């Protein structure tokens, strides 16, 4: 049994897991597919987490052992999994901000998603694990968590049927948001990015218009598409500070900006008068909640999210470093990378 352990930038070691002993309310999972998330890439490239650590949290797998007190699952079940669990009772949870709960980031799967086998603690078994239907693949099951993150963001904004949406960033999250927005409410979905391959993917998966942000003026193109009105909703899905300034230029009166990507802790100048004069709102969204997993699974069951068109590369667990290097290269034709225990 192996795991891919992150020690430093470009330094991963393929190591033995050692013995994983489960408690009476836990399960042991064989990882079948684990998605490579943008946060995994950021952590590995910038070394923003304590090391050594096993990254990975977009997990789908097969249960190989169940604790004596586990009654809802059995050996052989195919399940999806998420990595954080709120307490459901603190101030933040009572206000519906589950991802801000102090317990949320204190919980995790053991040792992490990029491991052949994973111990699933009691709270995760109870709140963040669910059965994958027979007609849903493991790769699709591994997408439940990132789809849930997107749904959490949409839950925090006010949208109306026929709204126009600008999504800044055509990475894996931006492409998910494109498909969800088009399904839920959007009249026109506009996607901006600098990568032509990803912009083509955006068009393939539901975008009505794309803007190559390094060659075109985003504000001018948005005004052209919307007849000068601007967009009702802007979703920032790339952690680049000036995109907030750009979003303020593109959002219409009464519109909303959803900040879905982490910015560096540095000042950003925006026209504050618009909050009062135009009733513009800015909302932030972090991670997912346990209430978003089943709706995410439903989107997969209905074929709203086309995972097969999003996955561009698959790597064995032993080549996690190479997978991250590829995914981080903005000039490569890569969108969603999946990690498998042994690879095909």
CATH domain class name of the largest domain: Alpha Beta
Number of domains: 2
- Largest sheet descriptor: 7 strands, mixed
Residue runs with pLDDT of under 50 for 5 or more positions: none
Mean of pLDDT: 97
Number of strands: 15
Oligomer: single chain
CATH-level-4 superfamily name of the largest domain = Medium-chain alcohol dehydrogenases, catalytic domain
CATH architecture grouping of the largest domain: Alpha-Beta Complex
The CATH topology assignment of the largest domain is Quinone Oxidoreductase, Chain A, domain 1
Which structural class should the secondary elements be placed in?
Answer: alpha/beta
The fraction of residues in strands falls at 25-35%
Question: Can you give the helix content as a percent range?
Answer: 25-40%
- State the end-to-end distance: 18 Å
Query: Which word captures the global form?
Result: globular
* Count, helices: 13
Keywords: Metal-binding, Oxidoreductase, Zinc
GO molecular function, one term: zinc ion binding
Family: Belongs to the zinc-containing alcohol dehydrogenase family.
Cofactor: Zn(2+)
């Amino acid at each position: 049994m192996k795991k891919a352990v992150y020690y430093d930038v470009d330094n991963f070691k393929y190591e033995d897991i050692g013995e994983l002993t489960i408690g009476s309310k836990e399960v042991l999972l064989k990882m079948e597919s684990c998605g490579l998330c943008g946060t995994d890439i950021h952590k590995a490239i910038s070394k923003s987490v304590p090391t050594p650590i096993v990254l990975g949290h977009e997990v789908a797998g097969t249960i190989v052992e169940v604790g004596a007190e586990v009654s809802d699952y059995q050996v052989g079940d195919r399940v999806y999994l998420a990595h954080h669990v709120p307490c459901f009772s603190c101030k933040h949870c009572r206000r519906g901000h589950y991802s801000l709960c102090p317990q949320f980031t204190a919980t995790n799967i053991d040792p992490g998603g990029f491991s052949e086998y994973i111990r699933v603690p009691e709270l995760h078994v109870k709140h963040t694990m669910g059965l994958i239907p027979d007609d849903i693949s493991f790769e699709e099951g591994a997408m439940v968590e990132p789809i849930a993150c997107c749904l959490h963001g949409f839950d925090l904004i006010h949208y109306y049927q026929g709204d126009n949406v600008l999504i800044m960033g055509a990475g894996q999250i931006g492409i998910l948001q494109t498909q969800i927005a088009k399904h839920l409410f959007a009249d026109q979905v506009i996607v901006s990015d600098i990568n032509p391959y990803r912009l083509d993917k955006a068009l393939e998966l539901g975008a009505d218009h794309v803007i190559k942000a390094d060659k075109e003026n985003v504000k001018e193109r948005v005004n052209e598409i919307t007849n000068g009105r601007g967009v009702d909703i802007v979703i920032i899905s790339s952690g680049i500070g000036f995109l907030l300034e750009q979003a303020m230029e593109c959002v219409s009166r009464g519109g909303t900006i959803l900040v879905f990507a982490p910015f560096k802790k540095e000042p950003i100048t925006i026209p504050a008068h618009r909050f009062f004069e135009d009733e513009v709102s800015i909302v932030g969204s972090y991670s997912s909640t346990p209430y978003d997993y089943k709706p995410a699974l439903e989107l997969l069951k209905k074929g709203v999210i086309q995972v097969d068109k999003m996955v561009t590369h698959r790597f064995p667990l032993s080549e996690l470093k190479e997978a991250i290097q590829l995914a981080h290269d903005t000039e490569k034709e890569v969108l969603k990378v999946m990690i498998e225990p042994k690879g095909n």
